[in-house]
Amino acid sequence: NAGVTQTPKFRILKIGQSMTLQCTQDMNHNYMYWYRQDPGMGLKLIYYSVGAGITDKGEVPNGYNVSRSTTEDFPLRLELAAPSQTSVYFCASSYSEGAGAKNIQYFGAGTRLSVL
Amino acid sequence: SQELEQSPQSLIVQEGKNLTINCTSSKTLYGLYWYKQKYGEGLIFLMMLQKGGEEKSHEKITAKLDEKKQQSSLHITASQPSHAGIYLCGAARKTGANNLFFGTGTRLTVIP
C-alpha cells in the first residue's frame, strides 16, 4: 500500500543550489501534481501532468521545472534555489476523466525544504 | 482574496463537544473535497460532495453541500483528540484540467 511516495522528507539547501524532489505513485493514476504549502496560505499548485509526456504550469511555476517520462514518476526540479522557495512540498496523484469529473487526489507525506 | 474561504481559521474545543467548519466559494462549485492534515504528514481524503444538498458521513464527521450558497460545512459530533489536525476544503474548476484549488485550512485542537 505505498500510494504516493516522496523523497527526501527534509532538505536544507544553500542559495543558488539545485535539487530534485522525487515523487512516485503505484496506483496507475493519470494525473499528478506538485503543490507547495506555506504557513497560513493553503496549497498552491506549481505544476501538474495529465499523463506521461504532458505537463503544464499551475499557479506558481516560476523557479521550478518538471518532467513526466513515465506514468509513475513526476520529479520536481528546483534550479538556483532562493529563500522564497522555503516551503513544504506535496506531490499528489489522481485518476480523473477531465473537466467536471471526479478528481480525488492522494497525497504524499511531503518534503520540508529550507533554503538558507 | 482567496477563492475558497474557510472559517474559523482555528478552533479549540473540549473533548466531547460538537463543532462545525465552513468553506465558502466565491465561484461556482463543481465538486467539493474535504481533507485532513496532521502535522508533518500529507493530506488524507475525507469526503467528496458533488450535488447540491448532498450530505455524506464517515464515522462522526458529516459534510454537507449547499450549492445555492456555494458553501460546504463539515460537522464533527462528540469530538475526540484523534480529530485534531488541519481541515482543508478543495474545490474543482469545471474547465481546464479539473485541478483543485484549496482553502487556507482550519486548525482544530481538541482538549482532553
Question: What does the model show?
Answer:
The complex is a heterodimer of chains A (116) and B (112). With 116 residues, chain A is an all-beta fold. In chain A, strands 2, 4, 5, 6, 9, 10 and 11 form a seven-stranded mixed beta sheet that branches. Chain A contains no helices and eleven strands. In chain A, a hairpin with a 2-residue loop joins β5 and β6. Chain A has strands at 4-7, 10-13, 19-25, 31-37, 43-51, 54-57, 64-66, 76-78, 87-94, 106-107, 111-115. Helix content of chain A is 0%, strand content 48%. Chain B has 112 residues and is mainly beta. Chain B is built from no helices and eleven strands. In chain B, the strands form two sheets. In chain B, strands 2, 4, 5, 9, 10 and 11 form a six-stranded mixed beta sheet that branches. In chain B, strands 1-3-8-7-6 form a five-stranded antiparallel beta sheet, with no helix packed on it. Chain B is globular and about 45 Å long. Chain A binds chain B through residues 4, 31, 33, 40-43, 45, 48, 50, 56, 58-59, 90, 92, 96, 98-110, and chain B through 2, 4, 9, 30-31, 33, 35, 40-45, 48, 50, 88, 90, 92-105.
